[in-house]
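User: I'm writing a short report section on ligand binding and want a predicted complex to refer to. Could you take this sequence and FE2/S2 (inorganic) cluster and write out the structure as C-alpha cells? A short remark afterwards would be nice.
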Amino acid sequence: MASVGDARLANTTPREAWWLQVLPVVLVLSAFGVYATLRAFEGAFFQWGPYLSPFYSPLIDVHHRYWPFSPALLILGGPLGFRVTCYYYRKAYYRAFFLDPPACAVPERPGRRYSGETKFPFILQNVHRYFLYLAAIFLAFLWHDAVRGFFFEDGIGVGVGSIVLLVNVTLLTLYLFSCHSLRHLVGGKLDCFSCTTFGRPRNGAWQGLSVLNERHMLFAWLSLFSVGFADFYVRLVSSGAIRDPRLL
Ligand code: FES
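Assistant: Sure. The C-alpha cells for the complex follow:
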C-alpha cells in the first residue's frame, strides 16, 4: 500500500514536474561519469602534437617507470574531488540521485530525513575549500597546456585543437573563479571591508567574483561539457580517427 509520502511524490502537478529537472542531471552526470572513467582507465590516445587531454594533465610518469597503470589515475582525484564537493553539484546530485529532496517544495521519500552534512560521510564535503586550492594548481597546468597547443613542430600556429583547449581552460577558469568557497575566501567572511587590510581591493575582487558566482551553475555545466569534449577531440586526432584542421 502506497504511503502518504509516495502519494505526495507522485501527485505533484505539472508545475511541480520535478523529474523534468532531475532527469537531464541524471543522464548527463551518468554519461560523463561513464565516459570519464573509461577514458581515465584507457591510458592511451591522450596526446597528439602539442595537444594534451585535460584528463591527463599534468602528465606524470608517462613512461610507466613507477606507475604501471594509466597516468590519468594518478591525478583524477584532484578535479574529481573539486567537482564532487562543489556546492552546486551537491545540490544537483542530492536531488537527482538521492531524491533528497527531489526539488524545492517536493517532499523527500518516506523514511528519509534530511540531516544536512553534519554526519559521515557527507561531512567530508567540507573539504571543498582544500580541493579549491588543488584545482587552482591543476588550472595552472591546463593554461600551460592551452598555450602549448599553439606551438607546433613547424612553428606557432592555430589548429582546431588549439581553440578547443583554449575554450576549455577559459570555461574551467570561469568555473573556478565563480566558486562559492573562493568568494567566501576573498570577502565573504568579512563584516566590514573598510576595517581590514587591503579592504578596498578585496571589496573590488569580491564584487567581481560575486558577478561570476551568480552564474556558477552555468559555468559548472559548460566546463563539464568542454572538458569532456576537449578530451574527446584529443582522442579523435590522437587515434587517427580525424585530422586536426590547421586554421593558421
Ligand atoms: S562551489 Fe562549485 S566549485 Fe566551489
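A remark for your report: The beta strands are 47-48, 51-52, 151-152, 155-156. The first strand starts at residue 47 and ends at 48.
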